[in-house]
Structure formats: C-alpha cells, structure tokens
Amino acid sequence: MRRAIYPGSFDPVTNGHLDIIERGCKLFDEIIIAVVVNPEKRPLFSLEERREILTEVLAGINSGNCRIQVDQFQGLLVKYAVEQQADAVVRGIRAFSDYEYELQMALMNRRMEPRIETVFMMPAEAYSYVSSRLVKEVFQLGGQITGLVPSLVEERMKQKLRSG
Ligand code: PNS
Q1: pTM to 2 decimals?
Q2: Which of 13, 49, 24 has the alpha carbon at shortest distance from 131?
Q3: DSSP run (H or E) holding 153
Q4: 161 vs 44: CA distance, rounded Å
Q5: Phi, psi for 100 (deg, rounded to 5)
Q6: What would the DSSP string read from start to end of 78-139?
Q7: Catalytic hit among 50, 94, 136, 156
Q8: Position 39 confidence tier, pLDDT thresholds 50, 70, 90
Q9: Residue nearest ligand 1's atom 6 by CA
Q10: Catalytic site residue 17?
Q11: Which residue of the set 9, 50, 91, 132 is catalytic?
C-alpha cells in the first residue's frame, strides 16, 4: 500500500492540480490532498470552502483504484506525513522556475524526515503556466479563466465577486 500526501494552499484548486492528482493516482494507492492551514495568509476561499470545493471536484476525476481523501494540516508537512504513515509527498513542477524552491523544500524535508520521499510530477503542457495566484489575478481583473479551473471553482469565484 503506497500512500502519498499532496499538500498545498489550493486557493483555488486548478485544473493543473487535478491533472497532477490523476497522474499521482497511477503511482499511489492512496493520496491525501492536504490543505495547509496558514493563519498568516488571507486566502480568497476559507479553509472550509477550499476543502468543500476539493471534495466536490475530486468526485469527478479519473482516479482509477486510488483512494483520495481531503484533509488539512498545520505546522511541518513532514511531521504530518509521518503521522499519516505516508511514503511520499507529491509536488507539481511546471517550469524550471518552480524547481529551485521545490528542490530546497524537498531537501529540507528530507533532512528532517529521510523516510519521506518527494516525488516531482509534471502537469500536462496545457497547464504549465496555470497557477492559483494568476487565476485569481486574471479573474479579479475581468479576464477569462474558463478551462483553467473546474467550472465549480469559476462559479464560486463569481459568487465571491458578487458578494464583494
Ligand atoms: O500550494 P503551495 O502554497 O505552493 O504549498 C506550499 C506548501 C504548503 C507545500 C509549503 O508551504 C509547506 O510545506 N508548508 C508547511 C510548513 C513546512 O513544512 N515548512 C517547511 C518546508 S521545508
């Protein structure tokens, strides 16, 4: 039984994240999508909203026999990964620019917890420029985000905009 943690802010989840999860499902029997609790950040969607959206959109992906769970964690990722008896942490790498930061985190995590491997995965090229940050910026400035995020996310973003 191979279990992986896919950690992140998921504010909001993008089609790039879902692509990585589908790919991860080919490698692991179980993936825990772990939303980081970071009291210092002011996210667009609350923790509860992000978990709810993730649960809903994950029901529609192609996960094969892989079991997917949504959870949250606070503090050190590797500590959480050990608690969950995970074998690996999955991170998506879009471009070379992601690599430096991700490598630093992976090596620091390995230093703290050599039992946990980090697995870097590449999303489909179509999502190689998609990030939650850019999606929010483009949307807030009136740009089109259709196809970059699940339609539920787009809908929830429109609701947020309407409610101010
Ligand atoms: O989606 P993000 O914001 O790129 O995810 C970053 C995340 C959550 C993976 C990273 O910030 C993290 O692991 N935070 C937990 C705190 C931690 O373990 N810090 C030490 C990293 S070496």
Answers
A1: 0.97
A2: 13
A3: helix 151-162
A4: 10
A5: -60, -50
A6: HHHHHHTT-SEEEEE--SHHHHHHHHHHHHHHHHH-TTPEEEEEPPPGGGTT--HHHHHHHH
A7: 94
A8: confident
A9: 8
A10: yes
A11: 132
